[in-house]
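Researcher: Watch the backbone:
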Amino acid sequence: MKATALFKNGLWISYATFITRIFAFLSSLVLARLLQPSDFGIIGIAYVFWSFFSLFIQGTAGAFIIYKGIEHPKYVNTAYTISLLVGLALAVGVAVTAPLVAMFFQEPILTGILFVFAFNLLLSSASNVYSSVMTRQMKYRAIANITLVNSITRLICTTGAALLGFSYWSFVIGDTASWIVNCVLNRYYSKYEFRLQIDSEVKSEVQSFYFSTIASSFGLYTNFNIDNFAVGKLLGSTSLGYYNLAYQLTNAFSTIVGAIFNQLGMPVFAQLPQEKQENILLKVVEQTAILTAAICALIFLIVDSQVVTLVFGAKWLPIIQVIPGLLIFSYFRIINSSLFSMLVAKGRPDINAKVNLQIAPIAVGSFILGANLGGIVGVSLAVAIVLGIGWTLYWWWAACRNLHWSFSKFITPCFIPILLIIPGLVLSVNLPLFIRPFAFISIYLIAIRVFQPQIFMQYKKKFNQLVSSAIGG
């Protein structure tokens, strides 16, 4: 793919994901004003179980289509049929277990919420396959437009329901409306006619990829959601409300970048010659780490008590203590997104599965320990140490060992930017709020110029080219 087309598609994905996050932020902003932290906690528990059941759908059959292509209908139809059957089984599973979940958390309202989520799983199972076809076809403009409509639908329905007094049901109403619109539009714009068919010749290959991806997704689910589970069960719904909002704020950027890697990186990586994949991935890691470290540092400097009080209200001040640990996790989550996409593109989701499943028990233990020793702050520190630093080191080591790549070559650029942001943070954190970002960026650029001159010169060259193009235009 030409660089211009790659850049254009990247912009569409960035736009689509940014739209999703900004509308989600606006929704959270309105609901934070209208609802109580305990309301966020209740829906946070429901989302934990939504995430668990949806991991059997999202990134499974769709990922196989992106990896294999759409040229052979027997592969696509088999993946589609399996996805629908799994979605139906999961919907039944959610409906059956909903009363037990409500009883376990002593929140009776969870039964009704999860019943609605069961219906949404059926919509998700169909929608994700259609969306993956468009991703493989690189119809990113259509995906972006669908995302915009979905986000507007969710914002209007969620905030409207909250204004009418539906409290935590506002989330459910907004999500359901969004999934209905998403399913209808994805089916229309993909223009791909699926058939209900399971081909015996390819069934085993589809199932092997499917179950490897599920195993990987299960590990990711445990690592990304069990902290919410631990907070909700051990510390209560109010603490979960604080933790959940802080998580949304600190991981907004990582969600955007992760979507870019999944939607653009995965199909691009899959079409690269094998001899070029290692060097391309290294360049992606180097550039991503430099930019991500700066953005995470800026979020830390900007989101202080004054900003939280002004934007969300004084009742949300406890999230300040949770943000640093979650930002560390967010940074490493972004760095690891490129590796995840590369392994799936190479047809090796089994590596992702092994790493995620092996780290999951350690993560669970650390979250429980953190909750008992330090509350939500203890959980955030456990997330930073285990899912940030520890997970990154082990994942890259396991991948490089299996692919016969150099571990040190990849892991070094993952950690260098963290060291480079420290001087800027120390020198700017006590400055007035409006000066902090400018002071930090200046100091960070100097650090890059001194310790990574090659990367600095690359950025300088690109900046000069951009200015020249703007002047020339």
